[in-house]
Amino acid sequence: MKRTWKPRWVVENRTPTFISPRPGHVKFGAVKYLWGNVPAIDVIQLGQNEGAEFQTPINLLFAASGDLRNIVLSVTSLPQSYRSPLSIVINDCDIDIVARNLIFLLIMFIEKDSNTAAEFMLHVWYSALVTEACYTLLQKKLKPLIEDVCNKIAGKPSRTLLGKTWHFGGSSLRLVLTREAWIRLPSYFNVPNGMTKKKAHAVRQAVVNPPLAGLGMIKYRNCGVLLPFGQPCEAFVIPNPTVFNSCDEWPMMDSADPSDGWSIKTFLATKAGPAKKDMYGQLHHYLKRLFTKFHCYLHSKPVSFELQHVYAQVLEETLAGKKFDRIEISNICDSNYLGIDITLRTLGPLLRSPSANRHATLITTFLNAVPEARMVFRMTEPFAAGLITKYMDRYDFAHAASSAGLKMKEEHTIIPAWPLRVNDSLHPAQKDREDFKLLLGTAHIGHERYMEWKVGAVRVAADTQLGGSCILS
Ligand SMILES: C[S@@+](CC[C@H](N)C(=O)[O-])C[C@H]1O[C@@H](n2cnc3c(N)ncnc32)[C@H](O)[C@@H]1O
User: Fold this and answer.
1) What is the rounded average pLDDT of the residues 301-310?
2) Which of 73, 129, 301, 402 suits a disulfide with 236, CB 3.0-4.6 Å?
């Protein structure tokens, strides 16, 4: 670096962006979430809700799903004894996300060998390159299913919603899209024209430079394939067609990382190969086992999936009266998405009333509330709890809940209010210090706030007057 070099903000005599009053850090790369940015949660938690012996069908709605991680973790965490039908609606307004989720599920249903299916799903999800064998499955077995539908709907109006259900033993997979979106779908199975392994590496590297980090991270960021440290990646030669939509863009932010979507404590507890502290190798083995378990579940118990591609605000129309035992909405309740009022008003009516299931819960995640409150109220207070109270007043959560006929649950039964917070007492124990170090090594802050909601008394009374509900537990 030249001795005379000065940062641009000094030359331009302005405040640098990193201390601007806007929240958050400066982002680089496309704002798209092909990989979740908070650890997966089991939204059912049967044991601490309906009870481990529960045997009634369960309806789940993921209204702004992002990737499939919450679905995979929820299904695989069910007790062995649970055998009743599961109905899972997975919606996202981004067609890239819906197409990838469809491909993950098709891999699970079509590939009969659970090991191979888990391996393919893992790489299509998290690797920039895939093997010839994986690409052949996508091209020869999966794409024809979509092309078949595309041929049949050629004459339909482009904006009409069209559904197709595939049956696999006792399970099924339904996809509802406009004709326009259906026609686009085959492209997610094809490598874009002119895209090569070399080109894929170059466009990825332009966004994802290896940071000063552990060897495992450097290797993953360099080669882009989620493998244990010692495992060669030469067999991965085909750019992942579900990631690269064009020859010139890596579609995620520089900071996006597969480890953000899973509990670091859990996957670091996984045994993996001979390399020590091989975080990405441990994540690989953890996911491989989880996806294998998911495959076994789908091939032995009844699950019906429905994938939709609409804004969450219109789900009440597209779901035509269906009610759910759990609704998970990611962080679209944050004020930079829908905000709490629209979220509760549009999704609350889809939640089952306590007279049908007193454990029915809508789960909201706030990732931006604390930093927003810190900025708005210019508070330096380190304790997020005080900030969230102010935030709730600012957006009048009490009114939002009552006008949606919902009530905030005082006691959480799905996910703790602050699951990523470390013990911040003045006298932390050794374990707290270790948790803190672990948190520092992740993309999480500790201010991620979850809230759980159930149907309130006013709607219960209205539902009762209408009659017709059954008590489940
Ligand atoms: C809210 S974003 C943020 C990332 C998220 N925290 C995660 O871990 O995936 C999650 C997903 O919500 C989707 N989304 C955003 N607004 C939506 C809306 N109004 N309706 C449906 N999906 C929405 C995005 O396309 C994205 O895939």
Assistant:
1) 98
2) 129
